[in-house]
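Problem 12. The chain below contains 336 residues. Write out its predicted structure in token notation.
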Amino acid sequence: MLRSVTSRRAVNILQSTLKYAEQSIRHRSRLPVNTVILFVPQQEAWVVERFGKFSQILEPGLNVILPIVDTIKYVQSLKEIAIDVPHQAAITLDNVTLTMDAVLYLKVVDAYKASYGVEDPEYAITQLAQTTMRSEIGKISLDKVFRERESLNIAIVDAINHASNAWGIKCMRYEIRDMKLPAKVQEAMQTQVEAERKKRAAILESEGIREADINVAEGKKRSRILNSEAHRAEQINQAQGEAEAMLAKAQARATSIEIISQALGKENGLNAVSMNIAEQYVKAFSNLAKETNTVILPANSGDVPAMVTQALTMYKTLAKDTKKQLEITEYNDKQS
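Solution.
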């Protein structure tokens, strides 16, 4: 049982080691044999040595070299290649350990430097990318790693190009492919995200309630304003109606008084007034007992002619006083 488990672990370790070695090994073409006349493929550069010393770089197409003395030592591919950067651990500014892997895109720009500047350019670039990435991750906090992922990639590319210029290799792009956090940190971040979402939901709900209350209050305000304006308009209309009614009554009363005054000046006018007063006297007596059971009567209530005569005497007296006042008013107006 223990042997089987141990052998499985050993196999897994060996497989991972071989996979890492395959990723680290530079994929290059086989060195061609010197056949004097050579055809170099497009996007390749062949480095030729003469007597063990650098001689020339063969360009794509037809090339002729000397036999025996010239040897094709390196074959450089000028195409852009992608290299997997293995998983590695990095510590952020706030002491959080991250495990991440990335993809590095390279291109050979100088075949001479790529051949003689470093033993294995791709392996050197991979190691440089790992160390640069750890250095850049250590400058920022965990939250900024997720927010500034693009700027982090640009910073790593600039740092790699600054160091790899002497190797004849240019880093085109650096992309972080996967990023893993410790389980506890991931749970804490998940809790933080849930709390933030609950906070936003509560804020949105409270804002909705506030807007609803504002709308209700605004509706009540407008309703009260409209009701007050309607009540004011109703009172104005009612007052105008009452004023017009009073004016109409006053005009009718004035007209009736004028007609009565004209009638009094005619023949038998006083007889008509006496008859009208007698009719009103009788009508008043007919309404005495309709509103209350208590009735107060004058001593000579049965003497209708006496009551009429008394009313006419009062009328004549008031007429004389009114006439005197009008004459005085006219005299004053003339004097002024």
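Discussion. Confidence is low (pLDDT under 50) at residues 1-6, 20-28. Students who got a different answer should revisit the alignment rule from Section 12.3.
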